[in-house]
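S1.2 Input.
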Amino acid sequence: MAVWQRLGVPIRRHDHGHLVVELQQLPSPDDDRLQSSPESGIC
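S1.3 Output.
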C-alpha cells in the first residue's frame, strides 16, 4: 500500500511521522483504554 512499508525501515521523516502515529493508534481499541487508564500515566 505505502512505499515506506515496502522499505521495511523505520520512518523518521516528519512527512510520514504523522502517518506512523495514526497507524499505531488504529491497531486495537484496547490501546486507547490503556492510555485512558491512570496506570498508563506511569509509562
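S1.4 Remarks. DSSP finds three helices and no strands in the chain.
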